[in-house]
Amino acid sequence: MRDASLRIRPYITSDEKAVRLFIGRALMEGLAEANRRSAFHPITLALWLALSAIMTQSLGWGPKPEFGWAGYLLPLPAFGCWGIALLYLLDWNNRPSFEEHTAAVLRRPDLRNILDHYSKTPPSSFFILEFNAKIVGFIAVDALGVDQDSNPEANTKDRLKSDSRSAKIRHFFVDEPYRKTNIQNDLMKHALQHTFHDEHNIREVQIESSVLNGYVRQSLIDIGFKHGNTIRNVGIYGWAVQLCTLSRAKWRECCLSTT
């Protein structure tokens, strides 16, 4: 680690409250980014300018140079009104898909008993990132079979039989003040080193990614994940959520290149 006050340790039961809070926060960060991107999207800006211009023209709120510099401020209320209205409409359209996904994640089997779930198979892990004894991040790698996404009620034995060579990063979060140091790369590498250990038979690790979680996506690129097919689209402008994969061979190549 880069700092003696930073450490990565296994999850313990007393972490549950903080972890659940951060999981919800991590999922809803995508909504904030979707709203920001939506507000500055060319279609949104064009619509805002057009509606504001129509309102300004209809109500006679155009600039009036005869009143001096204050006369040029007359159109501002129209732009402000439509700006607020569009921001509300964008959030209203973006929010449902994020709230539905957050609710679905919080209902997954792995969060019913975190310590028990991530202790069932050796390649699985749930690591906590601490700074001065404060939780600032975590990563959860689930090796109980990636098909539980389509069949979350399947029992553990069925999932192990159906897919024992793939693992999935189900939760990955680092608090914003610590992202500039790229500590998220160290955290992910620590978890991958455990999952791809020679004693384990994991051939690939998967994770869902989108441009709405920029620091996660950059970390995946740095480590060597390959961006694959689109799983779903979210938000009013349909940002793609992709399934990214990292093979054991690619991981070994990455490790050798950094040593």
From TrEMBL:
Matching PANTHER family: GNAT FAMILY N-ACETYLTRANSFERASE, LD18367P
Top-level taxonomy: Eukaryota, Fungi, Dikarya, Basidiomycota, Agaricomycotina
Protein name per Swiss-Prot or TrEMBL: N-acetyltransferase domain-containing protein
Pfam families in alphabetical order: Acetyltransf_1
Repeat recorded as keyword: no
Cited PROSITE patterns: GNAT (PS51186)
Ranges where the N-acetyltransferase domain occurs: 85-253
Spans traversing the lipid bilayer: 45-63, 69-90
Keywords of this entry: Membrane, Transferase, Transmembrane, Transmembrane helix
Entry-linked InterPro entries: Acyl_CoA_acyltransferase, GNAT_dom, NAT_camello-type
Gene3D superfamilies: 3.40.630.30
Alphabetized GO MF terms: N-acetyltransferase activity
Record bears the keyword Iron-sulfur: no
